Amino acid sequence: MEYINQFKLIQEIVKGQKPDSRKLLAEIDRERVMSTIQRSKGGLPAPFICSNEPKEEENFAQIPGADKRKLLKICKKIRESPEKQLAKLLELKKRYPNVPAIYNYIGIAYACSNQSEKYYNTIIETIKKFPHYLFGKTALAEYYLKNNEHKKIPKIFDNKFEIYMHFPLSVKIFHTSEVRAFYSFIGTYYARANKQARALLCYSILEGIDPNHLATRQLGDEIIQHEIEKFRRKVLKVLPEEEFIKLRKRISEKDWQKWEKEITKDSNTGKLDFLIKM
């Protein structure tokens, strides 16, 4: 089932430019998406509350104030000077071996300094030591997605694709950062697994938090790019790639408004139905 306007998607493809994902996704029939999910296995997710209120992990809360401030200061500088901050983080890890956030920041420092093997090993160490730490799982999900291994995602989360499934039933409020991290990677998995409705629901969650956040824009681009590739494969079944390139070039050289009238006319007469129904 298609939820994105296919003819507007065609327009974006033939323009040969980066598509405006946010514009295309703004026209989705959300009721149709929700109806599809309601009828699918698992149905609609339960409601939960997303909050920006500070939320400290139990062991993190026990760190003395001076070291806590030091850690937060280090975190702000990780991306600009990862190797320098790494030494400080490793020292803090020795002093506070039961604080999962420190392991997470060490992983980020390794990633930012292009030490991929140490980055991966740190993620695995984090998950083994803190199996219920959500950011450890999202870090591994991000690693697999970057390496085009999206099929490994379900196992990471024990096939639990809603954030509240990873917490006690009494927990109803989740911090914005963990909600964003969780659904950005779950949404990307759904897009690559061709589960469009679920991917769009994840996008809606992120959009509700902040439509301009990088994670929201990246997931939107992922969904649209997947749809473009899917459409391109459909076209290449009936049109050789060389002919498709020629067609796109010919269209791009024509007056766009004239082309838009032609494609609308062809759409209304059913000449382009094969592109959608294939």
Tell me about this structure.
With 278 residues, this protein is mostly helical. The chain has a domain at 1-46 and 184-278. 67% of the residues lie in helices and 2% in strands. The protein has helices spanning 6-15, 21-25, 30-39, 58-61, 65-77, 82-95, 100-112, 116-129, 134-146, 153-156, 176-192, 196-209, 214-238, 241-253, 256-268, 273-277; strands at residues 49-51, 173-175. Helix 6 packs antiparallel against helix 7 (100-112), helix 8 (116-129) runs antiparallel to helix 9 and helix 11 runs antiparallel to helix 12. It is globular, with a radius of gyration of 23 Å. 25% of the residues are buried. The model has no long low-confidence stretch (mean pLDDT 86).
